Amino acid sequence: MKIDAHQHFWSLARGDYGWLTPALAPIYRDFLPADLAPILARHGIERTILVQAAPTVAETGFLLGLAERTPFVAGVVGWVDLTAPDAPRVIASLAANPLLVGLRPMVHDIPDADWLLRADLAPAIEAMVAHRLVFDALVRPEHLPRLARLVARHPKLSVVVDHGAKPLIAAGVIEPWLADLAAVARHSRVVGKLSGLITEAAPGWREADVRPYVDHLLALFGPERLVWGSDWPVVELAGGYDAWVALTAASLAPLDAAGRAAVLGGNAVTVYLANDRGRV
User: pTM of the entire structure?
Assistant: First the structure.
């Protein structure tokens, strides 16, 4: 089974997408299941993981409602204010819906670079562990040392590093991203997400610009701890779904069939859809 482990839906009229402005013209419109279904069919993708795009519990409820009506959505990664005193209660309430498979704080938009080190995250993270929810880490390279410390503090927490931690591909920068991500990847409960990379590349990118970063992710996590996602519709800003599928197919070609199947779906089942969460 092929799974797109990172896609979004949004409806502009909801009004809580602070980052989504008319300046992002190609994606400044509603994107809903009917828009994605033909793309998935074209590429033989059977299921998706639907990921939050707004820092509100209301949006998480909206996504869970869409997931309930959309058979190809296997699970939802939502949002909760993890520092709020009532975070454990809110997490428990949302987790009553088995389609919730994870939570994602939008760390890369938080001004405090040390946010991941806050002591008041602990009760929420303990609640995530108790309810078998994945922590999707939306981080930039500068956050990786902090993420390594968070993972060490919470060894039972399952963590997915979204978009390979957004390396500086347009500038051709590898270090310290590579060394810092390697420190995170040493923890066995951390999984890398092969997604969002072409958005970090310069306009008019070529495969040679992006391929080294894909290869580094494969080397760090191996085919057994890497999941593939499109980051649709954001990917439409940087060449589109088909271009990303083609690039990743070329990058994964050296793997054997079992390795490719793991990256393109099997690992997403293990990470997001085990322990009676989500739908396969």
Answer: 0.97
